[in-house]
Amino acid sequence: MIPAIVAITPIIIIFLGLVVFKKGGTTMGVLGWLLCCFLSVFYFKTPIDIVLGASYYGILKSLGITLIVSFSILQIIFMEKTGALKRIISEIKRYDFEKPELIMLLNIGFGSFLVGIGATPVSMLPPIMMGLGFSPFLSIVLPCLGYNPLTSFALLGIPITLPAEYIATSIYNNPAAAEQIAFDIGLKVSIYLPFISTGFAFGMLYFVGKWRMVKKGAPYALISGLVLAFTTMIFAKLTGPMIPGIFGGLAVVLALIAYKKYRTGKVERKEFKSDFPLWKALFPWITLVVFSLVVSLAVFNHLGPYKLLTTPFIVHVLANRSVDLQILSKAYFWVLVSTVISIPILKPTKEQLRDITKTWIIRGYKPMIAAAVFFAIAFVMDWSGNSIVNGKLTLVDTGRNMNYAIGDAISKSGPFYALLAPLLGLFGAVVAGSETPSNVMFARIQYIATTKLLGEKNYLQIIAAHSTAGGIASGITPAKIINAAAVVNKIGIEGEVIKKTLVLCILLTILTGIITMFLV
Fold first, then answer.
1. Is 433 within 8 Å of 65 (Cβ atoms)?
2. Is-contact 168 174, C-beta < 8 A?
3. In this structure, which long-range contacts are made by residues 8-17, counting pairs with CB atoms below 8 Å and at least 24 apart in sequence?
4. 455-466 burial, b if ≥16 CB within 10 A, otherwise e?
5. Residue 177: is it exposed, middle or buried by C-beta count within 10 angstroms (0-12/13-18/19+)?
């Protein structure tokens, strides 16, 4: 138990700094990383070169997050300074949606669709919410919570398909089983959705207006949560984990519009005249959505240009560990491209371009550092206790690994393991910055504990619970909250956001564990 307490100490310190002492995510991230390195070297006996290598590896792995944060901030500033963002907000205001309706429509419906295709709702939606009159706190919280239930189906199912490949290859020693494993995990994750998606919908309403708003918005929350859940379940059964998120989000939008027409007979649209065409204002996002789909969909795999996008860009780190950056296939590259090709459309002046660049430099560097150090922490923990044996990074003694120490402590819960296993998913996603690396890093730990306590047949259900909790964690993951705060220039509010959302995320994780106990 003591090794587990030591291993989790950096994360506890980070959360205390954010929530209690109201320090910024960048400051606490750096302090947490330094403490994690210290404990890895002096308590878990990890060689310094491996700790530094793990940090470097984590920073390289973080580029998918750090650069998308940076380029998303650039894009939002570009759209703000050219008037595009104001035009989009004016268009939304034309419709007579009530507040709870608008919250569900944008954050659960549109947010789930965006994350399904590989775009980033935590970058795109906060400025819109601010423009619609929501407070900075709500403008950050609502987009961070809205897409959480479908995080497992983000990026066309990557949080499921990538761990499935790892499980098939490294645990089952049967690479051919990866597709079936991904299909099974997707189905098992969808079982939790009626409870989790509806729980988030009601939680969002509570943050907006306490019980009064919960009562007022209950029909919208039920419609959004249940339509999202059952649409996703149907598509997970019919198609596997790649596209349920896309259709789940679209179904919510259509269901809410249909409910409004049923309730009022129409959807009113106010008169509005503008010399700024809506398509121009939306051009950066339209191109980003198109690029995201083209890069992500497997149907394009056979095309020559697509193969160029996936050209390896390998950086060697340490021993047998390298990182393939594949720059041209990453979302951050296409965020930048969609911004650059929008310049002739939105036609900023030279003075505006200078202002955009200056503002971007001022706003952009802190959230990049924060995201990078959280990835560094994740891999310092993952590589702790390793040695280099015959040119390979090898864990000789699992008792000297921080992640194994935490997993071992949870595995001693005996018959309550199914209840507590999702907490590892919550913890892993908070540390690693997203669900996907958490699912991979803890897959073997969950396998060992599940086989020992519940039987191997229940392993994929435990992984599904782990994945579900990893999605729930988006509401308290510093890297994502910092991203949302940065695009509305509210860095420093992360602690307040985490403090308010922590209870909801823990309650939904416990609910995930309770459901799991009935399923295994």
1. yes
2. yes
3. 8/406, 8/427, 9/35, 9/39, 10/35, 10/36, 10/39, 10/377, 11/377, 11/427, 11/430, 11/431, 14/478, 15/498, 17/495
4. eeebbbbbbbbb
5. middle
Q: pLDDT for 298-328, tens place per residue? A: 545 555 555 666 677 889 999 888 888 877 7
Phi, psi torsion values for 132, nearest 5 degrees? -85, 0
Which residues have C-beta within 8 Å of that of residue 517, sequence separation ≥ 6? Answer: 416, 418, 419
DSSP string, 452-475: HHT-GGGHHHHHHHHHHHHHHGGG
pLDDT band at 31 (very low <50, low <70, confident <90, very high): very high
- Specify whether the CB–CB gap between 423 and 509 falls below 8 A: yes
DSSP sequence for 29-84 = HHHHHHHHHHHHHHTS---HHHHHHHHHHHHHHTHHHHHHHHHHHHHHHHHHHTTH
Note whether 375 and 32 are within 8 A (CB).
no
pLDDT-derived band at 20 (thresholds 50, 70, 90) equals confident
Q: What is the pTM of this model?
A: 0.82
